[in-house]
Automatic annotation (TrEMBL):
<dbReference type="InterPro" id="IPR023213">
    <property type="entry name" value="CAT-like_dom_sf"/>
</dbReference>
<comment type="similarity">
    <text>Belongs to the plant acyltransferase family.</text>
</comment>
<protein>
    <submittedName>
        <fullName>Uncharacterized protein</fullName>
    </submittedName>
</protein>
<dbReference type="InterPro" id="IPR050898">
    <property type="entry name" value="Plant_acyltransferase"/>
</dbReference>
<keyword id="KW-0808">Transferase</keyword>
<dbReference type="GO" id="GO:0016740">
    <property type="term" value="F:transferase activity"/>
</dbReference>
<dbReference type="Pfam" id="PF02458">
    <property type="entry name" value="Transferase"/>
</dbReference>
Amino acid sequence: METKALNFNVTRRVPELIPPAKATPHEMKYLSPIDELEGLRFQVPVINFYRRSESAAHGKDPVMVIRKAIAEALVYYYPLAGRLREAAGSNNKPQLVVDCTGEGIIFTEADADVSIDEFGDPICPPIPGLSKLLFDVPGSGGMLGCPLVLAQVTRLKCGGFVFATRFNHTLCDGVGMVQFLTAVSEFARGWPAPSVHPLWQRHLISARIPQEITVVRHEFDQVPKTITPLFEQDKLMIQRSFIFDNDKVSTLRRHHINKSSNCSTFELIAAIIWRARTIALKFDPVEEVRLSVAVDIRNKFNPPIPMGYYGNVIAAPAAVTTAGQLKAAPIGYTVQLIKSAKASVNADNVTSMIDVPSVVGATTFTLSDVRKLGEQYVDYGWGKPEFGGSPMWGGGHAPYATFFIPIKSAKGGEDRFVVPMSLPEPAMVCFAKELNLMMQNDALQANL
């Protein structure tokens, strides 16, 4: 579906700093080797839309409720109120540390002359007017010396509101972000403490000495930093969302997967998205292309990473083939590539990733399944959100990565999710055409 343009005005108060509600330790905290990966040094936006619900929130102002709850949550998550610095690490190599200054996060109060229903049914990324709902406060977006979380609550004219946040990814992964937001929601509903006690404990993830690679992983291959002709020729990127429901998934499974084969919905749709995108971008048939799949590796450690740890605990195993093979082979072939990549994540694999960061090129596409993170259930006292998740992968990462994001069901109990894409316009037209063909084409069954 294409997101319609939506023009509305937002009136913002002067952004303020929200420090922890109580005094917190002033100390330096080191990050883990995963946190420090270059590929995680960017900001991640999260946005939730809520309807008016006076009976649930007793007529309270969401700005006041959430502002207070953030301050209370920061007492437990006080590193998020600090600032990133560089310190001398091993071999005098600069290492990121959190200076727990207690300065706080940036918070903006706002009002908009738009109602929640005007954002669409269902609400889907890319969210129109995102820059108004999550104002990029000047000087807030850097890595060093900047606030680690940016937050904005925008009241809507219908009585609902939008709560948008932006996290520095070096501090936490999706699980950690939702864990913090859940703590904020619990304080907003009057809880005396978070249900999950946060754990820093970055020492649980450490590199070996000497560092080494003990397993063969495609993530460590040196990839030529090529750019597809379409990216070079057309700098204008457009964004569209593609919705998948049970009926579409069943149709695609019936058309492209042998009945005796077993694959998850993620593996099937990831294979289809990767194939359609590769065709749309017109890679040379002999060019190597990769699909990196974000995998939570908390249970891959011995012992497993404990509940409450909110740092980055993710790996991105890569499925690798050529553009020509990906186009010519049946979807079942691509599914097996993805299954094998996911299955490759074991204890040795994880340790090697920590020892030597992966190197990827422009032909790598990354998919993250965030359907089970729980953003769509976070309740600040107004009930579950109409939409909860990523508004769209922003900045320079947009053409090379996307998410599987849950959206509100049109029918009771029906699971639906959306996959936002960012591509040059001619590639987007081709991508949508390829998806339609795969929905209708039974011919590939003969190749299974």
